[in-house]
Amino acid sequence: xxxxxxxxxxxxxxxxxxxxxxxxxxLSGADAINALRPFYFAVxxxxxxxxxxxxxxxxxxxxxxxxxLENLQKPGFRSFKPTQLTFYxxxxxxxxxxxxxxxxxxxxxxxxFTLHTRxxxxxxxDILNSCSLSTEHIQSLNVNxxxxxxxxxxxxRPIKWDKTYYSFTGFKDPEEELEQxxxxxxxxxxxxxxxxxxxxxKLKKSLPLRKELERLKFELSHxxxxxxxxxxRSWGIAHRCSQLxxxxxxxxxxxxVLKNVKGRTVVFTDRSGMSAAGHIMLGTMDVHHHWTKxxxxxxxxxxxxxxxxxxxxxxxxxxxxxxxxxxEELQPLLTLEEYYETLDSFYNKLSDxxxxxxxxxxxxxxxxxxxDRYAPSLHEFGHFTIPTVCDPATLQWFIFAKxxxxxxxxxxxxxxxxxxxxxxxxxxxxxxxxxxxxEPSVSSAQMIDxxxxxxxxxxxxxQGMHLCISxxxxxxxxxxLCIPWNWKN
Length: 489
Hints:
globular, disordered N terminus
């Protein structure tokens, strides 16, 4: 009897080994990257430069996806824990009738899917199919077609032993394990249990660099009399220190070109110039020569900024005193020149239409302009989002119809901001956090809900940690803990 069991076990292992060999021959790590090129092209953060919220979501989801793919290539990898990912996918044909409901006027749609596959081929196919991308090109990769068919057959038709086999031998049923993993939803406590040690290790390693970053930031801000130094993207601490060292070298080499930066905010981002908010942008891929040119042009930028403010006032007068604002956290990252062109185009359109707004009838209200929308809307925070191509008559009707609601939302926004700050302070103190913050894509309402629920828990894991409220679970490279705002208990 035991000889028979040994034979059965040997046969089972041989079958599983054969399947693994077929899968590894079918798709290598390089093949997987090539196969996912259409996906990377559709979601790469560099194509979302004007949409910071969507860019950040894709950036973080790509990090988690790359980690998943790396684990699949490790020998003996057997973790079946599902990984949920969300991506904003660019649409090539926004006018297509097949566009999903989540398709936006900005030219992209949100796609969420859960990975629980155990081989590269199935993972790649799942990703492409979830994003409605073609899989035909996979067969054109440098892979033996017969091997591909055999592997696909092996993946789709795994060995199915009778349940009594697992009961008798004590082996774990892989199908049952996978089903259990899919059924079990990650909870905050279980995730912190699994990831606290890793986060603490990374945080301790980053502490010297964090101190260096604070020192560099303070010294440069004091020396140049800057209002602030910021980063547009979630770069690591080492990367940020490198950027500040680079700015420090420029200060030593060309101090005369930085005489006009007093009182300004410097933002390290993907391109150099001046932002619509009036901040000095330094492109992280640019060399000192490009930065020097930007600093030399500052007097001209300041003149353009005055003209821009004058243009905003003229638009406000035409629209009954409504204030034209630019919100960094919600709007695309625009240069001063781009934003001026947008305002100028909108102003000329308004001037020609001569809308009959009573002077100062809309004072106290706010609006932002966006060039990638087609219909006006009212934000939960009380400001109007107005497309630059909006029909003047439609604009007039919409503002009049929503004016009272906008005032109520603005009042609620002020109350919400106060509540949010109080809850952040209380949570930071209760859990002895070193820092508690949120991603720009997390709203104040979501942050408030998250903090209220956190305060009901006892979480000793968080002492001394950096906690980021996000849309997913993750441990960042410098030890910051990311948890979704709607975490499960």
